[in-house]
Design a protein that fits this description.
Distance between the termini: 41 Å
CATH topology of the largest domain: Butyryl-CoA Dehydrogenase, subunit A, domain 3
Order of helices and strands: HHHHHHHEEEEEEEHEEHHHHHH
Shape: globular
Mean pLDDT: 96
CATH architecture of the largest domain: Up-down Bundle
Helix content: 40-55%
CATH superfamily of the largest domain: Butyryl-CoA Dehydrogenase, subunit A, domain 3
Strand content: 5-15%
CATH class of the largest domain: Mainly Alpha
Bound molecules: flavin-adenine dinucleotide
Low-confidence stretches: none
Length: 399
């Protein structure tokens, strides 16, 4: 059997359409304006939805486009490469709701996914708590306690994307604090915005201002068994479902990272061809040329890793035996991707120098790229995951 690295005609067409759309809509000026205003780009979000760019891999029955994970990432990549933080803020408009698409009941999907895919509403995925985001293996402070036919939810989640705009919060809560291991007593709930939910926006943030980040407090919020993601049979299975979802998001962050890295590198390359110093174009200084060569090579590696990871994440859904490999690759993609994104922006800033530091796209991308190293598990957490799989649990149990 041959190994084929070529995209299909259909995939190339999808990429081209996405690129043309992004070049028209995501101008540098628009991106800078949203960043400065610190507002979620609702109008562009709806335009993207109209183009079919929201919930791309969701079933068409629920408003999606029935794309494969690989195809949806290829399209997202084209959108993000033009103005990474703006496109990422838009694509994160449905953050958390992939969990509904993956594991939800028909009623949960029918209630939420079509409205999200139309760009009418946004969603949040609530995992991190003020006491520590990396450690989901502890007993969570957000508790769901049974009271008759209701679950009563109390607790605080922090750094929540779309916390101030979301209509629905997919939330991990502790349902059995006495479980033999805490993560075996966690459940995912679909919580509609209503009384008892309060969100406080973080106003001082390093970057990614077009994507609202907030602390979300749940006070005596009442939900029912049917609000457990996938129904009552998924009681206390939330941690495991979150892991599969996080796999997908880590892979997506790899694509975001490749997009921002490539955008920054292209800026640096064009500048190298124009800017003169000491009587020659700065690209003629070998020290700079070599740094560009090294970065271009790493970005190529990253793009290959992203594609393989997306392919495997999808395949592992049908073949559970591949899950371990898919988790490993998604963590590698996330760690290596985010690191490459930060370093590519750093290189572009070095090359653009003063013009990179003030009022440039690159300075905005640099601040955004740093977030890619933190969200969905820091680099240390990714390395822990990879080490556990490569070296085995016994050797790494003290991590
Ligand atoms: C802009 C933004 C948006 C976000 N959006 C969301 C969202 O929508 N939903 C959500 O749930 N969360 C969200 N997060 C939270 C994000 O996922 C967490 O910040 C991240 O998981 C790290 O958690 P923490 O900040 O509590 O750091 P901590 O867990 O307190 O970690 C602090 C430091 O200790 C290190 N560390 C911790 N444990 C270990 C270990 N075992 N081994 C080695 N080092 C370790 C970490 O790597 C880090 O360097 C967002 C964060 C940001 C900044």
């Amino acid at each position: 059997m041959t190994l084929n690295f070529e995209l299909t005609e259909e995939q190339r067409l999808m990429q081209q359409t996405a690129r043309e759309f992004a070049l028209k809509e995501f101008t540098s000026q628009v991106a800078a304006e949203y960043e400065e205003k610190g507002e979620f780009p609702w109008e562009l979000y709806r335009k993207c939805a109209k183009q079919g760019y929201i919930g791309m891999w969701w079933p068409s029955e629920y408003g999606g486009q029935d794309l494969s994970i690989v195809d949806s990432m290829l399209v997202a990549y084209e959108l993000m490469k033009v103005q990474p933080c703006l496109a990422a803020a838009i694509l994160a408009g449905t953050f958390g709701s992939d969990i509904i698409a993956l594991f939800g009941t028909h009623d949960q999907k029918a209630k939420w996914l079509p409205r999200l895919a139309k760009g009418e509403i946004t969603s949040s995925g609530c995992f991190t708590e003020p006491a520590g985001g990396s450690d989901l293996l502890r007993v969570l402070n957000t508790r769901a306690v049974k009271d008759g036919e209701y679950w009563v939810i109390n607790g605080t989640k922090t750094f929540i994307t779309n916390g101030t705009t979301a209509s629905v919060f997919i939330t991990l809560a502790q349902t059995d604090p006495k479980a033999e291991r805490p993560h075996k007593g966690q459940t995912l709930f679909v919580i509609e915005r209503g009384p008892g939910i309060q969100a406080n926006l973080f106003r001082r943030k390093m970057g990614w201002h077009a994507s609202p980040t907030a602390e979300v407090r749940f006070t005596n919020v009442r939900v029912r068994d049917e609000d457990i993601v996938g129904g009552i049979s998924n009681l206390n299975r939330g941690f495991y479902m979150s892991l599969q979802y996080i796999d997908l998001v880590r892979c997506a962050i790899g694509f975001q990272s490749a997009a921002v890295a490539e955008a920054a590198l292209e800026c640096a390359i064009s500048y190298c061809k124009e800017r003169e110093a000491f009587g020659r174009k700065i690209g003629g200084f070998q020290a700079l040329a070599f740094r560009i060569v090294e970065m271009a090579t790493r970005i190529e590696l990253l793009k290959s890793l992203c594609l393989r990871s997306a392919w495997l994440v999808e395949k592992a859904r049908k073949e559970p035996a591949l899950l371990k490999e898919s988790i490993k690759l998604a963590s590698m993609t996330k760690w290596y991707g985010a690191k490459t994104a930060v370093e590519a922006c750093d290189l572009a800033l070095d090359i653009l120098a003063g013009y990179g530091y003030v009022e440039s796209d690159v300075e905005r991308w640099y601040r955004f790229a740093k977030m890619l190293e933190i969200g969905e598990g820091t680099k240390e957490i990714q390395k822990n995951t990879i080490a556990r799989i490569i070296l085995g649990r016994e050797l790494t149990r003290t991590f």
